[in-house]
Amino acid sequence: VQLQASGGGSVQAGGSLRLSCAASGGTFSRSAVAWFRQVPGKEREFVTAIKWSGHTFYADSVKGRFTISRDNAKKNVYLQMNSLQPEDTAVYYCAADERVIQSALRLARSYDYWGQGTLVTVSS
Predict the structure, then answer these.
(1) pLDDT tens figures, 21-76
(2) 3-state class of 99 per DSSP?
(3) DSSP string, 28-71
(4) What is the C-alpha radius of gyration for the chain, rounded to an integer number of angstroms?
(5) Which of 60, 68, 83, 88 has the fewest CB within 10 Å, making it most exposed?
């Protein structure tokens, strides 16, 4: 599976952005897809994930503000980010793998396929 993340940009606190993760090849419809984010000097942090079934998982820090969704026909996963805060500033990566078990969805090492990352900057 090849992944292409897009939609990043610069917004003010309280604003919104919608990230997209476009997939090609592989068995996307059976894959779990996740978003992680990373700031310099820190480990990649789990943000959210969606199973092939549509079941979703969120980090506590984004619950109620971010929404992940998928369109298997278009091979896309979306991350709608509302009420953005400066601490949401990071490079956001999408990741996919069809072998991830539910207990490991929040672990970056569970995913073999990664997009290139898209930068989100939130100013106060």
Answers:
(1) 999 987 888 999 999 999 999 999 999 999 999 999 999 999 999 999 999 999 99
(2) coil
(3) GGG-EEEEEEE-TTS--EEEEEE-TT--EEE-TTTTTTEEEEEE
(4) 13
(5) 60
Tokens 């971010």 belong to which residue? 66
Pairing of strands 56-58, 118-123: unpaired
Sign of torsion over alpha carbons 80, 85, 40, 43: negative
Please give the single-letter amino acid code of residue 14.
G
Sequence-separated (6 or more) residues with CB below 8 Å from residue 105 = 32, 34, 46, 49, 51, 57
Structure tokens at 48: 């959210």
**How far is residue 33's CA from residue 50's CA, in Å, rounded to a whole number?**
5
